Hints:
The chain has 14 helices and 16 strands. The chain has helices spanning 3-10, 45-48, 57-69, 81-93, 118-133, 150-154, 159-162, 195-198, 200-207, 233-243, 315-330, 333-354, 383-395, 420-439, and strands at 24-28, 31-34, 39-42, 110-115, 137-141, 172-175, 212-217, 247-251, 276-279, 290-295, 358-364, 367-375, 380-381, 398-399, 401-403, 409-412. The strands form three sheets. The protein has a seven-stranded mixed beta sheet, with helices on both faces. Strands 11, 12, 13, 15 and 16 form a five-stranded antiparallel beta sheet that branches. A four-stranded mixed beta sheet has the order 1-2-3-14. The two termini are 37 Å apart.
Amino acid sequence: MTTQDQYARYILPVVAQGVEPVVVASAKGRTITDTDGKTYLDCFSGISVVNAGHNHPRILAAARAQMEQLVHCCSYVYQVPVVGQLAEKLAEIVPVGHQPALDGARLADAKSFFSCSGAEANEGAMRLAKQHTGRREIVALAYGFHGRTIGTLSITGNSARKKNNGPYLPGVAFGPAPYCYRCPLGLEYPSCEIACAHALRDTIRQQTSGDVAAFVVEPVLGEGGIVTPPAEYLTIAANIMHEHGALVVVDEVQTGFGRTGKMFHVEHTPDANVDILTMAKGIAAGFPLGAFTARAPVCDAMKPGDHLSTFGGNPIACAAALANIAVIQEERLAENAAARGAELLARCKLLQEKHRLIGDVRGSGLMIGLELVRDRKTKEPAADEAKALRAGLREHGVLVGVGGVFANVVRLQPPLSITTAECDQAAEALEDVLGKLSRS
């Protein structure tokens, strides 16, 4: 029985766009090789996970060495050196409460909880926020996505992700998405004066009882379609939430670890005061690990027995994460993401001028979205065309993602080590496939 047959017969068909017809045999750097020997330029990174590239030798060596010492003992029942080391490293680099010092040193004013996934990290962050504030309501955003548990789906603003699975948790309110291309308020940036952020006051006033514990927000809405808010958005939103006594929980599951040109995206807005930051995906180069880090005294609200994860803080994953962070820092991958992302974004904007199928190009660093529309005036989503573009790129040896609330956004999220030549390769493949779609 082939792998394709096994997937069809034994694995639930859970992927919205369908599993790709690629059987992966191996991967290294930015290259994926299938079982037939065909190679692909990976411009999706396993959904923004392998930021340092596939199978980085330094990360593999760290994981291998830890595997020889200890695989599991439950890092919340017994103390494990590598888990403590990772927690200390996160206290140094995660910008909660204030930005990290330029020399890498900072006061030990942050603590972390380790989980196995981003959804679990977001669940824990919400629980901590409620315990610290004594409040019970959550504000999130339309088009936001935070995981697929009942709790995280409750704060997800996308009916496609929530269908056939209600009812969801009460006490959740949604603010308008900072989606400039499809502004829910019918305004245009910058004359709008970031009305979507200011509207959060009305969200609290109209949709809650005033008992808001936290505002949970992605700094770039990944699954929502790489929706990239104006630079001022997060600062305004955070100030409003703090004025109302709520904590600010920033979901950096997809944007973290260099993806947008900084170690964490909130570093682009240093005056936005963050209370809790959640992370996963890019934290450990593909080893299952999630975490949330909270500033003091917020983190002190969680007491022994309040929370646990059997596999959270797995020693092998933590060893990989430590090596991964070192690689990102020492190889200056965030800086490369900023430079290569600017190049790729510029190439995509040129394609937008030439191909009317592209309604919008947006992103930050190496997190870029091309929103496809059938008509630029009506902005009718071109979901079928997005799927066809992905298939055409695959035939050209380039792997991308497709997402967005309307399933019409082509997602470019390659490993942060991508080169200028590889960005050119991706752009040239886009040019060729878009030309063919325009003629069909």
